[in-house]
Amino acid sequence: MIRLLTDLPGPAVATTLTPESIVMLPVGSIEHHGPHLPLSTDLIMADEFSRRIADASDQDVWLLPPLAFTKSDEHDWAVGTVWIGWETLMRTVIEIGESVAKTPARTLVFFNGHGGNIALIQVALREIRRRTGLRTFLMNASVPAGDTEAGFGIHGGHGETSIIMALRPELVSLDDAERWVPDHLAEFDQVKFNGGSVSFGWVSNDFGASGVVGDPTTANAAEGAALVAASVAKGVAALEEIARFRHAPGGEL
Description:
Keywords: Hydrolase, Metal-binding, Zinc. The chain is built from 6 helices and 4 strands; from the N terminus they run αβαβαβαβαα. By secondary structure, the protein is of the alpha/beta class. The protein has one domain (5-244): Creatininase (Rossmann fold, 3-Layer(aba) Sandwich), CATH 3.40.50.10310. α2 crosses α6 (221-244) and α5 packs across α6 (221-244).
C-alpha cells in the first residue's frame, strides 16, 4: 500500500506513525541523459521504484515527495541540467532528517536514482544518525550494464534506457540513441568506475560529446520491465531487513 506522508494532516502524523514506521525519501536528479532520454530519467526511476516498493512491502512505509534537484554538476555543461552544489544538498538532506526525527518514526530511508548522489548521502547517513538518533539507510536503483557496454553502462545506456522504455515509453527517442562506450578504459585493472582499487574524477562529456556513457541502442522495453520487477523485489527484501536491523543485538529502535 502506498502511503504518502504529505496526505496526512499535521496532527495525524503524531498519532498515525509509530517507532516501527519507515519514512522513505526518493532522490533523483534533473540532468542531461543524451538525446534519447528525458532530463527526468533519474527522478522517474527514484519516484516510480520507491512507490512500487512501498506498495509491495508489508512494512509501514511512508513516502515523502521526491527530491528532484540534487548534485548532478558532472552534467552542468549540458543545457537543461538543473543542479545544486554538494553543500546545499548535504544541508538539505540533513535538515530533512532532522524534520523526520520530530515524528514518531525512527527510520529514514533514502531511495536514490542518481549515482552522483551516492557518496554524499552515505556521509549524510552518519551525520543524521549522530544528530538525531534515527536509523538511516540508503537504497539505490539497480541498473546493470548491458552486454555491449564493457561494464561502462553507467549513464543513459542500455539499462536506464530499457527502464524508461518500460516506465515512460513516450519519453524515449531510440532513433536518436548512439553507442558511447569508452572501450579504451576496459584494459585498466585498477582504475575503474566501479570495482577497481583506484577511483578517478570525471564529468560526463569526458568520454564523448553526447554525455552518454553506455550503449542505449540495444535497449528494449521487455528487458526494462524485467529490471523494474527485479529492483522492486530487491527493494521489498531490503525493507524487510531494514525493519529488523539493529545496531546492537537486542537494541531498541
